Amino acid sequence: MLNRDLVIIGGGSAGMAAAVKAHELGVKDILILEKNNYLGGILNQCIHNGFGLHEFKEELTGPEFMTRFSDQVNALGIEYRLNSNVINVSNDKVVTYSNKEEGVVEVKAKAIILTAGCYERNAGAIQIAGDRPSGIYTAGQAQLYLNCYGYLVGKKVFILGSGDIGLIMARRMTLEGAKVLGVAELMPYSAGLNRNIVQCLQDFNIPLYLSHTVKEVKGKKHLEKVVIAKVDDHMKFIPGTEMEFDVDTLLLSVGLIPNVDLFNELPLSFSKTRGAKVNQAMETEIPGIFSAGNVLHVHDLVDYVVSEAKEAAIGAKLYLDGKLTHKGHKYDVIPGNGVGYVVPQVVYIDDASDSISFKFRVAHPFKDVNIYIKDGETVLKKIFKPAIIPSEMEIVNIPKANFTRETNTISVYVEEKK
Amino acid sequence: MFDVIIVGAGVVGSLLARKLSSYQLDVLVIDKETDVGNVTSMANSAIVHSGYDPVPGTLKAKLNVAGNKMFPKLCDDLDVSLDLIGSLTVALYDEQLPLLNDLAKRSAQNGVEVKLLSKEEVLAMEPNINKDVKGALLAPSAGIVNPFTLTVHAMENAVDNGVKLALREEVLSIKKEGDKFVVKTNKNSYESKLVINAAGVYSDKIHKMIEPIDYEVKARKGEYFVLDHYKKGLVNHVIFPLPSEKGKGILVAPTTSGNYIVGPSSEWDDDKEDLSTDKPTLDNVRAQATDMVPSIPFNQVIRTFAGLRPTPSTHDFVIGFAKSDDHFINVSGIESPGLVSSPAIAEYVVNEFVSKVLKLEPKASYNPKVRRRVHLKDLLISERNKIIKENPDYGYIVCNCEKVTLGEIRDELSRSVPPYTVKALKKRTRAGFGKCQGGFCQPLVIKELAKHFNVSMDQILLDKEDSNICRYKTKEVK
To answer: So what's the ipTM on this one?
Structure first.
């Protein structure tokens, strides 16, 4: 059995950022395990720009962004294994992986950071009604075929869901000569970033049908038609609102789900994000096992994935130094009115470094609201927002000194104007 | 000229071919699909029924009970997952208890061992069953099987023993010319002494090619949910409601791969190609299943699907010589319990019909076993490492959700009934069967198929004709 101070599962942006940060903090005995034959994860197929504005103060493509990190990993001599799939993580921190050269290997880790990313909700999960033709793909799958293999999956396209990958693919497939006939979004607001609605749909005159979803797909062999219809406030189809599109492709951009398979057999609880519950150090309920990036909760920007991964690296360093005691004052963090989720779910205030960052998303769009972060009845932070939407993640940092230590509850909620 | 042509490579056709391959006969199997076991044999409940339910004295009753007994050896020979976990038919209301007694009597008539259980006994065995359960009928000989590999391995074994297989060929006509049949497909014309019709939902259509018939085979659609394999012990047996005239009802069962299956509905369908699902039907399946097992985690549904039962108007399997020709044998209308009956059907057809018209000489070289497969996921680390050392492909995992290795994929490609399509590979290896439904591994699978068959990725089909995934090449990519 191998031994390492820190094993990082997943060599995408989160994994590499965590490794680089841990190395900077003095943790040198690191192993990154990556299932693909390259570092960088999903960024490899994201050839559009818009990455890095926070991290590098410039606009990069996905491959450029990931190269910045893989160059650092290589320069620092951080050890990694490619084509290496992790098959198990045990309660006592033995990570088992498999590859061609070494076979199945067990590594005993002092600390683990899971940065395994997320996967796309697909036609099976959303139980799409109608025939079972080919021609239905998740947006990311179509993106992979197009950007990495050079194949367009179709030329007449409809897109279900206004998630960012779907919007990006609307533009991308249009530029490759496909006709995108429209995007349907179940909710009365978009699930994607505003900039993508403008740059990927409006600039190409692609209609966005809000409060619409696919009612039926038709085609015995390959996809022939998509029928969409409007839904009411209870998500029921409104009769007579059906529209038919003759298409050969339906792309789905209907959500991303943390890929927590490796945590399923462990005694962990999960939050509303479907990621593991974590404390202020991005540490799960098993001491020394950390989680960061899209495997914890799905982020809007890779820059925030990177900053969260660095928090996990700081946490791992504290753990390795025996400084995560889980003693002292403990808070439970509760999402209140209008808030979908908050990360972290628990704060051990005495274990925290100088400040604590709360990441959350609102449950639906609001205008002209105050957001409160309260320690019992004490307001830790009040932020006015002229507009706030679920597709954009909020991050609020609060200095450790501001916490009262008199209550056990931090609440995050939206106050609407009367 | 062939001795026998079998029309249809479902589980019945495949097991028949295997049985015939044990004799000195030239056998050809023809199927219109891109893979064997691609219609009814692919989309069903995957249950090895005990045989308590069919009406005593029918072929269904006889062949179900006989087939059930053949499954352990069959699945051992063919290296197919089988788990005889038993079934529980549950009564949720007091007025259903007499019906359980009736079923117990029918079981005795069919020669099936069963046991009536009290409420307490049921809840001890199945803690997740509705607490209002009144009692149940336990049939210990019932089980679950992998229906995909059963069919594929049966045909592989048949081909290994000399059978010829013609996929992607649709039979257009069958004519008798003198004492031989001429079977025309969309691609070829074949001759044989004997024709066996095992064409599933189209078995009436194939029969009609040689004579007028007085029954029909209608498609009866069943819709299902498939759940991921994370919740252990949701149910430990196949859980049935009491049967009705519509069939055995909506069941909740584990699968041999640890998933759960919930369904099927039962609706007549005029369209024999209809595999569509619809929300009202699935909502009803969900409601009925939840009545029996209230805690089914429907948020873990990874797929919904529909299958077609070839339901004969005769209410029993139609097996025997055509009226006008004793060299044309029908194995028609094989609906439930067709899967469990299939090995017994093969024996029955060969012993009672084929043997009457063809001379059957055993083949000395016949080997009833397929070359065994390895599933790395199920092995100890030391065992895995031994295999990986011999063939490093077993160290590389292609399907992340189901942990399927490149070695397992390449093994399938080297077999005598290889997977030509993405779906065919999925049926054999489970690559793409998990929660991401091939989101990550599908390109790798297509690449591997293309490499093996020496074609470009755009030639690889998902399943049916014209179901290519990589449809238009945009530019040269290294």
So the answer is: 0.95
